[in-house]
Design brief:
The structure holds two protein chains of two kinds. By secondary structure, chain A is mainly beta. Chain A contains five helices and 44 strands. Chain B is mostly helical. Classes of the chains: A mainly beta, B mainly alpha. At the A-B interface, helix 1, helix 2 and helix 3 of A face helix 4, helix 5, helix 6 and helix 7 of B.
Chain lengths: ~650, ~200
């Protein structure tokens, strides 16, 4: 009853409410509700978009993290210190502050936002010009013909000899020749360039050693694999029977080839190992140099890795010490961030790294100065170990710019200082950024560093004419020879380092041309090989020291010619006062020919004794004088010339 | 949710007044005009209670007679609701007296059962004052509702419309309508109890 009563009581509802709910009005109400729903929907959508805009705004303006990612998870690794330094070096701080600057601002901003940052801008070249006294080992038939920088520290070459045979590495083919004057001939060859789809050999960079007993050749073969990138193979070849040479062993190393030495019974292989920026620190192979011997992979111990406080490069210079006979690994060490020049003395291995020191000065000027850090490993003992380091001003040109003598490291550097002021114009165009002419320039310094304390005990600063750079350096005992130049003129400096508290310097004054290599030619004479009166000329010049300075004794100059700056391509025979090298001459008919010339310094003049055609790249041409004959080697080219 | 403001078109109002005048003039055209304008409307209300076209038709005819008898003296402002109430009560009377027939598959009974939930506890009374109080309470309750809830509530419990039809007419889902009705009934019960209404 109650429910019926309530049902009836609904009758009491106000008429306007009843009319509002009338079915006939339903369509209108439905339409208005739909409109309202639509309004609510679009307001919700608008609210969502507003929310997204707020979120986007937050995303756009949240400042970027400027700290390198954490590597704390590798704290237990032996290489944690290396990991930390590599992590910090590889981290690239965002140039923009936030996503707005990164994605939005650049659309409207076309200005060049340049900033001159420091960096290794003055890295020197890699010319390996040598001036080393020739020596013969003598025992068991091996005869040294490579002009090594250090006595007893043998450098690899394209040509080696014994008492009976000459071996020449001809672009991946090891050839053996008899030493029989005009009857000489090739008696055997071994092809070592095994091409495959996954491996490429850089035969033009190959060189080799010959063991002291003359029985084994060790080929240092640069190569590249798709999987591992740059690599080096050490290939041992039994040459006991030159007519039947065969491979007797092989070792592979990851990395690029820098240099090598044969010291006593050990091969020192010096390689470069680069760490990629997106390295996985969980995989040591990606950031620690390793070598594979006898199917086993070995890495450099963490204790044997030398690294500066702040890395300027993610490259290692790695030293692998291997037994000459077995190619077994007997030691290893690495310089992290050092990847410029290598100098190997009789006791140490020195590695250099160049960086730029930048300073913003109070007067609004900015200065940049080229600096070099030199680190050393001692290798003479059973174990290679760090020996110390020092930072000096300037950069080092090549291995000949360093020399160790009686515990003193002598170094010649090119100094480079720039000082400028930067300002922008009213516009935003890059052309509005103007630099005042930089002040400073280049010059040269000589340092003497005590290897016991790693302190500078003597120095000669800014000894060259302002604006000149070091072209060549040669140390010879207590003497040092330096050639500097700007364009096509050079002075040659003689330093007497016998008394470090009173270093004397003499020079030639400005003379025509410059020497890219300086050679101690014996008897107080210095040989310079380089350019003459023009960039198309080749000049070989002899200097000697006088009471008043340094004077030119004589010169041999070829016009319209090219030469190689590869020092090992020069034949230096001090005993006979011979100098030989390959040249490229432009003929009258504009066709160029390769020739090999042999000069004799008779005390007064340089006299041409031999001038013959010889095929091959200039840096690969080799020659050796034996008992009245000059044996010449090129690309698939061999000849013998009688020297009168 | 704001309620809709019902705007009666002036033309509708004029039409209603003309028809009412016909009743006052005792013109036979009053019935025909009423049938023409509100015949379907009244049939709809009656059918939703009786679920029989024949019975609904009879109710509508009864409505015309009752309207003839009511005007004069009545001069309703809204002729539609005036006639609708007459039809509704006539149909309810018929339904309640003839419940045994159970037409419409118990749909009208279902409406009653739903409303039973709203009935506050207490003794019944037929007092006029209480009826006035009830009217005030019901209208006060209806005013407190949003337009949408109020329309749905009255479509169900005044017009006795099926839930499916309410849902279709207003573009809602049936479950939406059911939930709205349930919540509104609960609110009505609380409201009536609060107002001290006894049925």
């Amino acid at each position: 009853m109650k429910k019926e009563k309530l049902l009836r009581a609904m009758d009491l509802a106000d008429e306007k409410f009843v009319e509002e709910a009338s079915p006939e009005r339903a369509k209108k109400v439905k339409a208005s509700w739909k409109t309202r729903k639509r309004e609510i929907f679009w307001r919700s959508v608008a609210a969502c978009f507003t929310g997204l805009e707020v979120a986007a705004g937050c995303w756009l303006f949240i400042p970027f993290n400027t700290a390198p990612p954490s590597v704390a998870q590798y704290a237990d690794s032996d290489y944690y210190e290396v990991i930390q330094k590599l992590n910090e070096y590889n981290y690239v701080e965002p140039t923009e502050k936030n996503n707005y600057e990164k994605y939005i601002e650049g659309i409207f901003d076309i200005a060049l936002k340049g900033e001159m940052n420091g960096g290794a801008d003055f890295a020197p070249g890699m010319d390996a010009e040598q001036d080393v006294p020739t020596e013969g080992i003598g025992d068991a038939g091996y005869v040294e013909i490579t002009d090594n920088q250090e006595a007893g520290v043998i450098e690899a070459d394209l040509i080696k000899r014994t008492n009976t045979h000459i071996f020449y590495l001809d672009e991946g083919i090891l050839r053996a020749f008899t030493i029989a004057g005009e009857e000489s001939k090739e008696v055997g060859y071994l092809e070592l360039d095994e091409m495959s789809e996954t491996k490429m050999n850089y035969v033009s960079q190959w060189e080799f050693y010959l063991s002291a007993d003359g029985q084994t050749a060790i080929i240092v073969a640069s190569c590249f694999t798709k999987q591992d990138g740059a690599c080096i193979d050490l290939i041992a070849v039994d040459v006991s029977d030159p007519a039947k040479m065969e491979v007797s062993g092989r070792v592979s190393v990851n990395g690029g080839y820098m240099s090598s030495r044969l010291v006593g019974e050990s091969v020192l292989l010096i390689t470069e190992f680069k760490v990629n920026s997106n390295v996985d620190f969980g995989n040591e192979e990606e950031y620690i140099p390793q070598i594979e011997t006898n199917g086993e992979s070995q890495t450099v111990d963490a204790d044997n890795i030398v690294a500066p406080e702040t890395l300027t490069s993610s490259r290692y210079t790695v030293v692998w010490k291997l037994d000459q006979a077995t190619l077994e690994l007997t030691g290893s060490a690495a310089f992290l961030s050092y990847s410029d020049q290598i100098y190997v003395s009789q006791e140490h291995i020195f590695a250099t790294r160049t960086f730029t020191e930048r300073r913003d000065e109070k007067d609004g000027y900015t200065s940049r100065k080229s600096m070099t850090e030199i680190s050393a490993l001692s290798y003479a003992g059973a174990v290679m170990e760090p020996a110390g380091s020092i930072v000096i001003e300037g950069y080092v040109k090549d291995q000949y710019s360093l020399d160790e003598e009686d515990g003193i490291l002598r170094v010649v550097t090119t100094t480079s200082v720039s000082r400028w002021k930067e300002y922008t114009g009213d516009g935003v165009d890059s052309s509005d950024i103007l630099l005042e002419p930089s002040v400073g320039g280049t010059n040269a310094n000589l340092y003497c560093i005590d290897l016991g304390t790693w302190e500078i005990v003597a120095e000669v600063l800014q000894f060259a004419p302002q604006g000149e750079v070091v072209q060549s350096v040669r140390f010879d005992g207590r003497l040092a020879y330096v050639c500097t130049s700007v364009q096509l003129s050079d002075p040659v400096f003689f330093f007497d380092l016998s008394d470090l508290s009173n270093i004397t310097v003499k020079d030639t004054g400005t003379i025509e041309g410059f020497s890219s290599s300086l050679v101690n030619f014996g008897n107080g004479h210095l040989l310079g090989i380089g350019r003459g009166s023009s960039w198309d000329s080749v000049k070989i010049e002899v200097y000697e020291e006088s009471a008043d300075g340094v004077i030119s004794v004589c010169a041999y100059e070829l016009e319209n010619a090219e030469y190689s700056t590869e020092y090992k391509s020069y034949y230096i025979d001090r005993a006979n006062q011979f100098v030989g090298l390959g040249v490229y001459k432009y003929g009258e008919n504009k066709y160029a020919t390769n020739e090999y010339i042999l000069l004799l310094f008779d005390g007064y003049n340089l006299v041409e004794l031999v001038n013959v055609p010889l095929d091959g790249s200039l840096q690969d041409l080799r020659a050796v004088y034996i008992d009245g004959y000059l044996y010449l080697f090129g690309y698939k080219d061999f000849s013998v010339e009688k020297v009168v | 949710m704001k309620g809709l403001e019902i705007h009666v078109r002036e033309s509708d109002n004029v039409e209603d007044k003309k028809i009412v005048e016909l009743y006052w003039e005792r013109s036979e055209a009053a019935i025909s005009e009423t049938q023409k304008r509100y015949g379907r409307y009244c049939h709809y209300i009656a059918y939703n209670i009786l679920y029989s076209h024949e019975d609904a038709e009879e109710c509508v005819n009864d409505t015309y007679i009752k309207a003839w008898n009511a005007m004069p003296p009545h001069r309703p402002e809204r002729l539609s609701t005036f006639l609708g109430k007459i039809t509704r009560n006539t149909a309810l009377d018929r339904y309640l007296s003839d419940r045994a027939k159970k037409r419409g598959e118990g749909r009208t009974e279902a409406v009653l059962d739903e409303l039973a939930q709203c009935v506050p506890d207490g003794k019944t009374s037929g007092c006029m004052a209480e009826e006035l109080a009830l009217k005030e309470a019901i209208n006060g309750f209806l005013r407190s509702l949003s337009s949408q809830k109020r329309i749905i509530f009255l479509r169900r419990y005044w017009y006795m419309s099926p839930i499916r039809e309410i849902a279709e007419d207003y573009g809602l889902s049936e479950s939406n309508v059911k939930v709205t009705l349930l919540r509104t009934r609960n609110r009505l019960k609380v409201y009536l109890e609060k107002e001290g209404i006894e049925l």
